[in-house]
User: Fold this.
Amino acid sequence: MMEKTAILNLRVNPTVKEQEEKVLSRLGIPMSIAIDMYLNQISLTGRIPFAVALPKVPDAINADLMTNVQLHDKLKKVMMI
Assistant:
């Protein structure tokens, strides 16, 4: 096993950290090992080890597909709620 010689200081969302700690605890994996595994996968594969993509927005609420009139009408409905 390679000796660990680097220190990372990370800022993460506290809620995400708490959820992650629960999962890793159940798996018996310390956070430092999980992060090391993630970084090793990047090194081994030359990419992030999971798909990174923007979520698909339904056409009915996709502002990019609306005319200005449609967008204005939708915004007006939301503002009246």
